Amino acid sequence: xxxxxxxxxxLFSTPLQxxxxxxxxxxxxxxxxxxxxxxxxxHDRAAAVVERNALVLQGNGATLKPLQKHFLGSIxxxxxxxxxxxxxxxxxxxxxxxxxxxxxxxxAFRQAALQLSNSPVAQMIEGLVRNAGPYQCQxxxxxxxxxxxGQDEMRCLxxxxxxxxxxxxxxxxxxxxxxxxxxxxxxxxxxxxxxxxAWLRGIDLGDPxxxxxxxxxSDQLISDxxxxxxxxxxxxxxxxxxxxxxxxxxxxxxxxxxxxxxxETEDDPQIIxxxxxxxxxxxxxxxxxxxxxxxxxxxxxxxxxxxxxxxxGPFDLVPDAxxxxxxxxxxxxxxxxxxxxxxxxxxxxxxxxxxxSQDSILATHVFxxxxxxxxxxxxxxxxxxxxxxxxxxxxxxxxxxEGTGWLAEFxxxxxxxxxxxxxxxYLALRERLDADSPExxxxxxDLASYLTRRAVCGLxxxxxxxxxxxxxxxxxxxxxxxxxxxxxxxxxxxxxxxxWPDDGTFRHALKTVSAYKVLRPAKxxxxxxxxxxxxxxxxxxxxxxxVQTELSVExxxxxxxxxxxxxxxxxDQDDARLAREASLHNLGNLTLLTQPLNSSVSNxxxxxxxxxxxxxxxxxxxxxxxxxxxxxxxxxxxNISVWNEEEVARRAASLASAALLVWPRPCxxxxxxxxxxxxxxxx
Length: 683
Prior knowledge:
A hairpin with an 8-residue loop joins strand 3 (70-79) and strand 4 (88-94). This protein is an alpha+beta fold and 683 residues long. Helix 2 (31-57) packs across helix 9. It contains 28 helices and 16 strands. Residues 9-294 form the GmrSD restriction endonucleases N-terminal domain.
């Protein structure tokens, strides 16, 4: 490895290009965490140059000590083969965020310097932001060439004719009332451009905007970049100072240093990449997996661009009609599993690695576990990448269900019950069984029954990791039929920590458990919603059931019943109160609504009333009966005039009958909608 110390201008002074490998992550530096601190460091060194220049003008230059230099970090790269008619190029192994941001700084400085009068600074910067050519490929003119997700932004920002207004118009912060997140690369350029303008006007972004505020100019600038389509210049109207422009250029040329490390033939890029990955924005486990796989592809002489486009591209890019491709934010968004939250792509690789290794792993050791599994035996790259691609589609249908099909409804139930630990099992089943196969429906039906019955019965989930690894091993055994192996395992469990509750236990729990407290509202809503879905058939015209976020759980007997005149107790006050409290959170007293009732109806009388003028005042029963949800057809019965513990128990028994139809043990066939609908209605 050949180390070389250089400066920002030195890094870009020769006609060469720094290429970010197509399989590396896109630009991820944010304003608060990296860009603003970087600018503060550069501002500090430029201010030191201004102060030194002032002392020199005063005749004190002879006694001055050299200015202290600021070290920005390192960039690790490897030379690429020379090609006639192409720019000399280096592939960036580590430091792509830093090198990209420094190029954005120079592009921003050039744009600000173009507004100076009689200054050579903009022209001096030109050679630092553009390779003059001529070249066979237009992209060779760029000093830094990012991954596909950032190429559109780099073209826009590097165009000499592009103004700040053009950038803001192309990448707005909002359309109408809808907020849009500008690409991080654009945010960084806007911050650095306005930082340069502020510097030329003598404004320090770290200063408060006024003496009565803790808000700094930097805070205000970041807010404008995130919220406003047009970012107002700081100190607009103040003159731009040529001397300060020259001082900033000198700081970039002399006072800010970078170490470049050029790999030699014997150096292993993957080892170096893993060693240095803690710098800047921490790499995701998936970033390490991606680099490991594609560096392995490079060692084997594979066509990396083709492999990336065919198998990995969808993780990073989505088609965009206006720009060709845009960053795929879906996989970087956070998803919760258990008590922790991870980017979806890391959560996918966590579950994928568990599925492949058939063993428990730590969420903090995903890459190490993936690498250990991969290296156990020779792997065919195309085969493994295709398996990853297909598994990612299955993962997405589980964590982000769409449509009204039974697979999507299974996924919604799993999310409501908060049992993401079954994800490796789901991935394994989907890999081996077709989506429309009876075997998959049987397997997922058994799983849904197992999870729901245990949840309603209040049984622990603490052993699920061990339980599901045992199931995973069974269904992945090539000698086994997956659905049959799954059922055999579930039926064989006998201890309380893993048993599949039988019908008697399940029915008793459904009729007696305080579901709203034991399951909490989210799980209660998910179970009631699943009953609603199962009751819908062709007579409904559609299987569409509102998603859980559009539903609310309603207590038929209000939780504040003790303070309401319409829910009186019998003679034995103490026993009656205990019985009522026991039934208050029972499933029989809970239902679903697409819109919450207003408080006067929710806490009002159950039966209809008549006012002094003889006009009928609809009670709660009538309002519930108007609901389009089948779970509320119970309240259309004309013989229910009061709502008390007896009615709660009667409805709980009816819901229990429906639940036994929907979640049998074992699950040999889907419940007939008309049977579930009859059970829900109490007919």
